[in-house]
Amino acid sequence: WRIKEARSRAPKEKISPAIQDDYRHDANGLPQSLPGGQPSLAPRHRKSQSETSPDCQTNRRLGLFTEGHYADFNLSSALDRGRLDDEKHVRMTVWSAPGMDKPTFAEGVSALRSDSVRTYRKGDRLGPSWTNHWVHVVLSIPDNFRKSGEPVIFEFDPGCEGLIYNMDGHPLHAITGGANSRKDGAPGTAEDRRIDHIVPREAVTAGRYEIYIEVSVNGLFGVGINGFRHQRPDMNMSFKLALADLVLARSEARALQIDFKVLTQLARAEEGERWAVSRRALRAANEVMNAFRRSKGDEVTGELDLVVSRCREIARSVLGDIGRDASSKPSRNALIWGIGHCQQKVARSWSSQVDLIARYPKHHFGASSAQQYAWLEQLYPSLFAAVKEQIHAGRFHPIGGAWLEHDCVLPSGESLCRHYLYGQRYFEEKFGMRCREAWLPDTFGYASQLPQILRLAGIEYFFTQKLSWNNISVFPYSTFNWIGLDGSQVLSHMTPVDSYNSQADVDELVKGTTKHKNLEVTDQALLLFGNGDGGGGSTSLMLEKIDRLQSAAVLNAEIPPVTVAKASDFFDEVREKTDGGSTLPSWRGELYFELHRGTYTSQANIKKGNRKMETTLRDAEYFATLASLHDRTFQYPWGELGDIWRDALLNQFHDVLPGTSIKMVVDDALEIYGQRLPQAEKLLQTALSSLLPVSKAMNGFTPGSTDTVILVDPLRLARQQIIEIGAHVADAVDTLRQTLPGDRVLALAETNEAGIGTLVRRQDVSSPSATTSGDKHILTNTHFQLTIEGGRVTSLIDLGLQRELILEGPRAKSGGLMLYEDLPLAYDAWDAEIYHLDCATTIKFDSVEVTANGPLRASLTGRARFGDSEVSVTFSLDAVYGDVGLQQRSWLRVDVHADWHETHKFLKFALPVDIHAPNATFGTQYGLIERPTHRNTKPDQAKFEVCAHMIADLSEAGYGIALSSAHKYGYSVEGNTMQLSMLRSATAPDPEQDRGEHDFSFAIMPHVGRMLESGVYGDALRFTTDVYVRTAPAEHLGNLGKTSISVTGPQSKGILVDNVKRGEDDQKLHTRSMILRMFESQGGRGTGTLRISGLRPVSMSWVNILEEDMTDEPEVSWELNEGVIEVDLQFRGFELKTLRIVVE
């Protein structure tokens, strides 16, 4: 009755409405978490007889020994020998930095010596959100503290985060104030509070100690409204100083507190009644409670210490002889704060781990992301030196090999290569080591070419746990071989503990074995304990628990043995015990993540900026490579390109590019694009000016009468295409043209297979037309006829075949805009749930008008107003050359301008087509992937929204239709309905997500034949890749014409040269080399000849993406034939190869 009454009087926890459904309630009405955050439908039940048994009463009594309303009598009363907080012993002053400035240590200390400081006392508040404050602490240590051999601790709880420095400016460790946070959605289950700073023994002896503390006004997981990390930030938060106490600890009592915690976990283990150690732990815990008695004056007489000692002996009967073994926890960071705050996070987390390494001789810590090490090196050099020392000592472990924990599905293939090129080279340069395991615990899905990229970066192993979040089907394996599109494979592990935030609790160890899906082959599992998501990593409490569990496992066979090891050691042992992985199951293709599907669309401007950055860097490197090899005065900009690339990779962090960061981060990312894109474009134009020294870029310059327009295609594609040029260029050039609104001019362009061409005037051009009659609007060219009627696309006819392509399909009767209700269960910007498909509104155009009518382009523009938004969609068909046959088709261009101001809506374009196939084909990095158009099984049903690069195609025998877009990544093909996702409007964590104006384009590409034989992949490349326009005297190609790169041969159509750059080590080795990254794009064997003119080669070799010779590849077969390099090429399907050519 007393316990029940006490619980009923306790105030119920307030739960944000946004997360109420993530909890169920126990028999007493208290909230309980359900795994995966899913609501429970289980009814409440009456108490069974077992719940009123003596053992059950003891179990309920456990919670009253270390906390609760008996604090004056239970173990809580014995934890300290003394506690002081008066100003005689604790003196503090504080200086608050203006705005959201982040002063350096020197600036903070200087300000603390100025007149702008104030006294800082318990109860004072600091704010508002994201501000920084510097505190000077002076501790006077009394004689009785000094004479005791016990630890002296400064307990400092500002309610928020902080970083303690010594007087020389070296970061010591972090402070995490406030209550313990949530672990994986469950309240109060993470043990991430850290408020204790152990005063060094020499300072205790001296009787005086000084430190500085940088206090940052944000919670451990940002400043989300209502304290929920995934909500928008509350910009007016402040935090109260709850503790600033000088404490003399009773260390044995504090150790008993941890003993009892582990006994309690064992007693309450899920196995419970069937687990002998659980019964023994419950009995021992009961005996500890019975033995612990307080008496008057027991602290003075020493009786309390004897009581504590007896209690610890009882605990040892289950836990064994407890030493001070430590543990390993790889950590990660997350961006629910700005980049500057993320840099502070790194210093706080890693200084804390260095501190724990010093206190726990066997502690190990792993941290990914070369970017974080680089920040530390730049901003906290003394801490970087300390980390480096522990790396060399084998205690601090760089893991992952990547520049950071990147998104896997949205970056280009070259971007993924650069993550590992820059990451591995950084670790090699700074620490003399490389990583052997990929470390992506929280990334939202895993591209099917990642195994090949990892192996080419020297990485053998792969770790994640994210697929445990799948919300429709269950991934079948824990340890397995992951095989990529080309057949490359990595040994992979997904911890059965299903968390990267484990607290080293008993139930997690048990779950690591009982939930392991491959116990028939291996019973080993990784336990990632520590607080991730910027939570600071491992804590001393976790290390103490691991210590006890290791000891207890010796006495109790039921407890899984715990081995302290770095991640690569774990994988090495698994590989050895599974005969090189041969006895493990295999998974082929993508690891599709059945959650967070909204990330393919959220934050459209970041995705647009990322793709523009990727293509600009690709083109700048290509032209700069050619310029540097032909012009001795041209300096290849390694440093500038590397800096720009690293900032582009920073924005590919798995919460930035997917669009799941707070507005502050979004602003940071867009600012990076705003700064870096002009720099990259300048490098590109400088290289073109070197290649064409008498040419000029078409940025307002009017050509002379003898000048001609030169077109340069960075992908070296042969084109016959309508392109947009400036009016001032068209006025000076004799070419067929068409003027569009906004001073835009269209002209006919032709380029050869070297990617060089000009504007042309042709006589055999068949012009398109646009007509309107009442509510019927028709757009026609030689190939196609589009009809808009009743505000929808009702017909699209292939005129060459007289084939109607529009047919009512699932969720769409006609083509056009669709607006969906978008109310995810939990993660707003992250998720698009399957039920949103049942909440659609068909958007009809309010008006349609002819906006262009030949001779080169005809257009119909439909405008729709709905809610607070307005969207205009312009459909265009271009002129067709008279000699173009069925295999060379024009495409339907769609340009969208959206003034978007909706909330919790999802805008898509739907196209139901008369094509029927069980699978659709989608572009991915360095390849193609098929996904089902049906929903037969749960995994099929889960793929209602998928990610694609550049192209999504639905083909049947003889015919198909593709959608192509440069920077829209969300697609859906259900039955015969194709959909392209355009815009979302989540409100958390950024309440302004995507509000405003957007311009983007996509193409509808009907084609004869299936996708691979139709040539539509090349058309998609042409549509998504612009040519560069310059003018120069007629026939003058300068150095540009000296080098051409092409792949020839009847079986070479699928081999693409994706990237051309200079070698990373050319400066260091004083060499001149060209790096060519190629891949087979169609999934079949590819053979051909790479032809390069204008260079004099010295040597050639196949290299990995780290640009090291590959010992398992045959020598390059090549010859120089009449000044042209000819290299024999042989590719397996979707194979990625990198060729290094050293030239004179």
In terms of topology, how is this protein built?
Layout: H1 2-9, E1 23-25, E2 31-33, H2 54-61, E3 80-84, E4 90-96, H3 105-112, E5 118-119, E6 125-126, E7 132-140, H4 143-147, E8 152-157, E9 161-165, E10 171-176, E11 196-198, H5 201-206, E12 208-216, E13 239-240, E14 243-249, H6 251-267, H7 276-291, H8 298-301, H9 303-319, E15 328-331, H10 339-359, E16 364-368, H11 370-379, H12 381-392, E17 396-399, H13 413-431, E18 437-439, H14 450-456, E19 461-464, E20 479-483, E21 489-494, H15 506-514, H16 540-555, H17 567-577, E22 586-588, H18 604-630, H19 638-650, H20 663-691, E23 696-697, E24 707-712, E25 719-726, H21 727-732, E26 737-740, E27 744-751, E28 756-760, E29 765-766, E30 769-773, E31 776-780, E32 784-789, E33 792-798, E34 803-804, E35 816-821, E36 840-842, E37 847-853, E38 857-866, E39 869-878, E40 880-881, E41 892-900, E42 905-912, E43 919-924, E44 927-932, H22 938-942, E45 946-947, E46 950-956, E47 959-965, E48 970-974, E49 977-984, E50 996-1008, H23 1011-1014, H24 1016-1024, E51 1028-1033, E52 1045-1048, E53 1055-1062, H25 1066-1069, E54 1073-1080, E55 1086-1093, ...
Parallel strand pairs: 15-16, 16-17, 18-19, 19-21, 20-22
Antiparallel strand pairs: 1-2, 3-14, 4-5, 4-7, 6-13, 7-12, 8-11, 8-14, 9-10, 9-12, 20-21, 23-51, 24-28, 24-51, 25-27, 26-27, 27-28, 29-40, 30-31, 31-32, 32-33, 33-34, 35-36, 35-42, 37-38, 38-39, 39-41, 41-50, 42-49, 43-44, 43-46, 45-48, 46-47, 47-50, 48-49, 52-55, 53-54, 54-59, 55-58, 56-59, ...
Helix pairs in contact: 6-7, 6-9, 6-16, 7-9, 10-12, 11-12, 18-19, 18-20, 19-20
